[in-house]
Amino acid sequence: MTITTCIFDAYGTLFDVAAAAREAATEPGREDFSAHWPQVAENWRLKQLQYSWLRAVTGAHTDFWEVTQDGLDWALEANGLSGDAALRERLLQLYWELSAYPEVPAMLAALKSAGLNTAILSNGSPPMLNGAVQSAGVGDLLDDVLSVESVGIFKPARAVYDLVGDRFGCAPPEVLFVSSNGWDAAAASGYGFTTAWVNRAGAPMDRLPWTPQHVLQDLTTIPDLAGA
């Protein structure tokens, strides 16, 4: 079936989730943090995801901003930095201003030029996503920004993937779903989407009942996969 709609996860897929910690580490007066930022960024992202899964399976939903703060607090404490309130505040501020990966604007522009629908489908809350989209300057290249907040549960719940068909009136095989999270791409494949896993780190494939159809190093070839 022809691809009509390209859907992207946000954090780690279009937007660089390590950018907040990396940028903070370069600022004057944060020399101590510069030695810790890679581990803080990794711990922060891992706990952010783990807390979203745990909240989903226990029915204890909250918005992604609270999950993001909880993940950061764990990461800072794990790295002996929990007493630095100014650092915490700065990292959270920078998370609203994440940069897009370099290939994102041209890739989205190619999809739009080909007449394809483009949208984000993310765990992020609407204010967080709007901040990232505006900061990255890609709002004009997206038809919509879909958040799990409209269904009150995080990925990979099927209700989240349902949002795509509800919004665009397309069948699952018409959708190219793109995520940097292997588990997200796999679950979306099980849902019926055509999927691409953007595996920038060269990680092993997750051991799940489904696998993504495509594994990429970056987003450059997405227009080719979509037939654009």
Taken as a percent bin, the fraction of beta residues is 5-15%
Please give the largest β-sheet: 6 strands, parallel
At the fold tier of CATH, the topology name of the largest domain is: Rossmann fold
What is the SS-derived class?
alpha/beta
The helix content is 40-55%
Query: Termini distance?
Result: 14 Å
Order of helices and strands: EHHHHHHEHEHEHEEH
Query: What oligomeric arrangement do these chains adopt?
Result: single chain
Radius of gyration: 17 Å
Number of domains: 2
- CATH superfamily name of the largest domain? HAD superfamily/HAD-like
Describe this structure in words.
The protein is an alpha/beta fold and 228 residues long. It has two domains: 5-15 and 98-225, Rossmann fold, CATH 3.40.50.1000; 19-95, DNA polymerase, domain 1 (Orthogonal Bundle). The protein has ten helices and six strands, in the order βααααααβαβαβαββα. The protein has helices at 19-25, 31-34, 37-58, 64-78, 85-95, 104-113, 126-136, 158-168, 182-191, 222-225, and strands at residues 5-8, 117-122, 144-147, 175-179, 194-198, 214-216. Strands 3-2-1-4-5-6 form a six-stranded parallel sheet, sandwiched between helices. The protein is globular and about 55 Å long.
Labels describing this entry:
6-stranded parallel beta sheet; 228 residues; 6 strands; alpha/beta; DNA polymerase, domain 1; 12% strand; Rossmann fold; 10 helices
